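User: tokens in, sequence out, please.
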């Protein structure tokens, strides 16, 4: 069964959403029901475990698949859900838009947010609600011709919606059922993921090479900088912005072959014995990678460490 997994900007648990999700025993049944199925990640308002913290987007931000559950070897009352197939949404999806709720359980009897449901870190959801969230997260790729239309809440009250189903679809379930199944399933396939990952990484880095600072756009608007995986797909690296870098073609080639790498402070590393001195003059004068200001989008240290330990020849 599909599910929503909640994780904060600075999780209180041992989460790396692209690889595993850490949770207490209270949610074991809900997570086990989702094994073998797809989930979406949700970022709450609280950024940390501090109840006073704020800064979270209150939005769904990625899709992934739960492939197994294992006991935490250090805490017998905690578990890990192993994750595969992670892919960031092109656009984070707010849980609420006016009177419209993507999860019907989040809407209380009085029409306002149900605090009990909102505080649950794991929530099973029906396929119809999952598919609406997924459709909204990739609205530009799945429904580019329908921007700005409306979808109606199950109650019949129209609400703004980034997907844009037809005006006469007044039932929530009817709207979900109208999504062609092959378009939902296409997010699992490599071609869709390649396009989504490339667009997200290039846009995050302003279509500029993170290591050289070069931003070259051809006459058709195509950037020279490519989207590179830090932990390769062949090694089960996720299609996450945090596992991506925008790199010029030559730098991309060198990075994939371990001639260049990056330390945990985003300092550029080179394999001196294999890289000519001239390459150093191409790199950012600071000696550091240009990373996004938003820490949620910066390269994850775990993926950088994997590259250094398994690919780098320095």
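Assistant: Sequence out:
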């Amino acid at each position: 069964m599909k599910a929503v997994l909640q994780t904060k900007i600075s999780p209180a648990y041992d989460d790396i959403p692209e690889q595993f999700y850490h949770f207490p025993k209270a949610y074991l049944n809900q997570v086990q029901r989702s094994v073998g199925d797809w989930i979406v990640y949700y970022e709450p308002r609280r950024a940390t475990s501090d109840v006073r913290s704020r800064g979270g987007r209150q939005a769904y931000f990625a899709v992934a698949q739960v492939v197994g559950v294992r006991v935490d070897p250090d805490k017998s009352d905690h578990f890990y859900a192993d994750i595969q197939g992670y892919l960031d949404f092109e656009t984070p999806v707010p849980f609420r838009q006016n009177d419209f709720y993507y999860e019907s359980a989040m809407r209380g009897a009085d029409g306002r947010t149900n605090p009990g449901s909102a505080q649950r870190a794991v929530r099973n959801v029906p396929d119809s609600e999952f598919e609406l969230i997924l459709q909204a997260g990739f609205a530009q790729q799945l429904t580019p011709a329908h921007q700005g239309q409306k979808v109606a809440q199950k109650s019949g009250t129209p609400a703004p919606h980034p997907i844009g189903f037809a005006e006469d679809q007044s039932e929530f379930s009817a709207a979900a059922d109208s999504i062609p199944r092959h378009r939902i399933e296409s997010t699992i396939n490599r071609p869709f993921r390649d396009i989504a990952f490339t667009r997200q990484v290039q846009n995050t880095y302003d279509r500029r090479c993170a290591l050289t600072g070069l931003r070259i756009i051809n006459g058709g608007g195509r950037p020279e900088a490519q989207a590179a995986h830090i932990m390769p797909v062949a090694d089960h690296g996720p299609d996450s912005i945090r596992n991506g870098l925008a790199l010029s073609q030559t730098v991309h080639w060198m990075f994939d072959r371990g001639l260049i790498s990056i330390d945990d402070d985003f300092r550029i590393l080179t394999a001196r014995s294999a890289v000519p001195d001239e390459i150093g003059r191409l790199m950012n004068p600071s000696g550091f990678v240009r990373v996004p200001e938003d820490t949620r989008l910066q390269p994850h240290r775990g993926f950088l460490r994997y590259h250094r330990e398994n690919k780098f020849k320095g």
